[in-house]
Specification:
mainly alpha; about 65% helix; two-stranded antiparallel ribbon
Length: about 160
């Protein structure tokens, strides 16, 4: 499947993602809530909604609720899934501070392909759901992040005897 970002701008993807998240909370989605979620003013939201409406991705009448079309919802959910996967990888594997990971994931979600996200999702599932607990290499990686050098004990376990 082609990456959505080749069809929509990063900004438009952010709007669709925000609307999808707000809609999941079960409340009517209003221009004000979208603006708060994205940190933008109402005129910017209104302008973006006009473009999204022209593209057939949202339905919105002046002063009314914003509703995603089926295609808009698909794109919004796709962007949100990419965001969650990237944030999860940054926090759980690379030990990036959650607030930094949040901002980085927001930027990265627009550039990564569907194939890469699928592989990254499977990687996370494989690594973080190890039947024997935390993988040794992950412990070693965390040690390396913290100390700037490899854990000699773990390194010794990794070396092959000939």
């Amino acid at each position: 499947m082609e990456n959505i970002s080749t069809q929509q701008t990063a900004s438009m993807e952010d709007y669709l993602e925000a609307i999808a998240i707000l809609a999941e909370e079960g409340y009517p989605v209003k221009v004000t809530e979208i603006g708060k979620a994205l940190g933008v003013k109402k005129p910017s939201v209104t302008s973006a909604l006009a473009k999204l409406s022209e593209a057939g991705l949202v339905r919105h009448e002046k002063y009314g609720d914003v509703v995603l079309t089926a295609e808009g919802a698909r794109i919004g959910q796709d962007v949100y899934q990419r965001h969650r996967t990237l944030r999860h990888f940054l926090v759980e594997i690379l030990n990036v501070d959650p607030s930094v990971a949040e901002a980085d994931a927001c930027r990265m979600e627009h550039a990564v392909s569907q194939t890469t996200i699928e592989r990254l999702t499977k990687f996370l599932d494989f690594v973080l759901n190890c039947p024997r607990g935390e993988a040794e290499w992950l412990k070693g990686l965390n040690y390396y992040f913290e100390h700037g050098k490899r854990d000699e004990e773990l390194l010794a376990k990794c070396q092959r005897e000939e």
